[in-house]
Write a structure and sequence with these properties.
single chain; alpha/beta; Rossmann fold; seven-stranded mixed β-sheet
């Protein structure tokens, strides 16, 4: 049964991510978290604007969403190379958030917002058909059978993405866990709202040129070969 009670929802849904904080932050990163992050954090207690491009302090043509941006390598690259896009990044690991904040400040980016908590809250808050591109790259794989219920991408998550990704928009997923990738491929294809980019199916082991490598991916490449999947919203 669905519920709109946030306290009840938080008590029943499983966390799809691990630790919230690692080693102690440097003084600069502590300052960024204290001073810059509050200015970049979407206010989920207020209704979102009907036009989500209004969330950003500078004009943008469309809004992208990255769920679990790690240290922000991919997010920052996309923001630098696509000046018409405003990007909302979600990442609960505060050390990764702090690293992304450093990159945002160093590059002077004004088209990035950061949510330092569960991405499902942002998905529930965003207006329908408000996102042009969504990325889920190397989420926690939870490989043990008893852990797999914690995996982020479930049929419910796919339905939430189908609500916010606009027609013609894209969804990208990557993982170095082939079991997880197969589970996600099945869940998205079964949903019926997305068309798998079959013309790229033969290249699912090759990262596209506009899909920059992340630090986690670099570690994965020393062992298992990652899987790259892309869909278009119908």
């Amino acid at each position: 049964m669905m519920t709109d009670d946030p306290d009840r929802l938080e008590a029943t849904r499983l966390r799809s991510y691990g630790r919230r904080k690692g080693k102690r932050l440097s003084p600069r990163k502590e300052h960024l978290v204290a001073e810059l992050l509050p200015r970049l954090r979407p206010d989920l207690t207020q209704p979102p604007p009907s036009d989500p491009t209004a969330l950003f302090p500078v004009p943008v043509r469309e809004v992208w969403l990255e769920i679990g941006f790690g240290s922000g390598e991919h997010l920052l690259w996309q923001a630098e190379h696509h000046p018409g896009a405003g990007i909302i990044g979600c990442e609960p690991y505060i050390n990764g958030v702090a690293a992304a904040l450093g990159g945002i400040e160093d590059r002077g980016l004004q088209r990035v917002l950061l949510h330092d908590d569960d991405a499902r809250d942002v998905l529930a808050w965003l207006p329908q058909s408000s996102i042009a591109r969504a990325f889920i790259l190397f989420p926690d794989p939870w490989p043990k059978k008893r852990q797999q219920k914690r995996r982020l991408v479930t049929p419910e998550m796919v339905q939430a993405l189908a609500r916010v990704v606009r027609p013609g928009g894209t969804l990208r997923f990557a993982s170095d866990d082939t079991d997880y990738a197969g589970q996600v491929l099945y869940a998205v294809n079964q949903n019926g709202a997305f068309a798998w980019c079959a013309e790229k199916a033969d290249h699912w082991r090759e990262r596209p040129d506009d899909w920059p490598q992340t630090r986690y991916e670099g570690k994965a490449l020393s062992g298992r070969k990652p899987v790259y999947l892309e869909w278009r919203r119908l």
